[in-house]
Amino acid sequence: MSTTSTSLRILRVTALLGYMMGSSMLLFARARDGALLLSSILYRINSFTGMPVNTVWFVIVMAGLLGLLVCAGAGAIDAISTVSITALYVAYAIPMFARFAFDNDFKPGPFNLGFFVGVRSDGIPLVLSYIATDERSSTVSFK
Q1: Residue 141 above 80 pLDDT?
Q2: Are residues 51 and 20 in contact, defined by beta-carbon separation less than 8 angstroms?
Q3: How far apart are CA 85 and CA 77, in angstroms?
Q4: How would you write the chain as a 3-class SS string?
Q5: C-alpha distance from residue 29 to each of 37, 108, 136 (Å)
Q6: What percentage of the chain reaches a pLDDT higher than 90?
Q7: Which of 2, 30, 62, 82 would staple 35 via disulfide (CB 3.0–4.6 Å)?
Q8: How far apart are CA 22 and CA 15, in angstroms?
Q9: Measured between alpha carbons, how far is 136 from 78 in angstroms, rounded to an integer?
């Protein structure tokens, strides 16, 4: 076994663990806020480890189920990837839109980048979301 293939295997495992940790943290935060159907189960902390073990196992099982799509073919994986990317853009756009479209009582904390930085950081992803999901953007050639 070459050094390069060993390094790539270690890198893959490290990346996988990073994705699992990030997904578990996000899912736990959503469960803590009561934003999920299974919040009461996913929010439980294991008394022995002090960790949200239910949340981690839920992420592992869901990732395994998505991994089984390999058996269904490339079309199934492409469909899931496309839907998840589009849903990610929509998920980022909804709070940014709601911030400006509706009245809110948001008060900035001690670390605040100011109004103009906020407008740019909210506006740029909204424009990029439109470009990425616009049906005409698929015909753009970057040659």
Answers
A1: no
A2: no
A3: 12
A4: CCHHHHHHHHHHHHHHHHHHHHHHHHHHHHHHCCCCCCHHHHCCCCCCCCCCHHHHHHHHHHHHHHHHHHHHCHHHHHHHHHHHHHHHHHHHHHHHHHHHHCCCCCCCCCCCCCHHHHHHHHHHHHHHHHHHHCHHHHHCCCC
A5: 13, 21, 37
A6: 16
A7: 30
A8: 11
A9: 20
What is the pTM (predicted TM-score) of this model?
0.59
Q: How far apart are CA 25 and CA 13, in angstroms?
A: 18
User: 120 to each of 25, 29, 115, 125, 133, how far by Cα in Å?
Assistant: 28, 27, 9, 9, 20
Amino acid at 130: Y
Quick one: angle between helices 115-133 and 74-101, nearest 10? 140
User: Is residue 85's pLDDT more than 70?
Assistant: yes
Distances (CA, A) of 22 to 28, 56, 109, 130: 10, 10, 25, 27
Residue type, 52: P
**Tokens linked to 97:** 């839109």
Looking up tokens 């506006």 gives 123
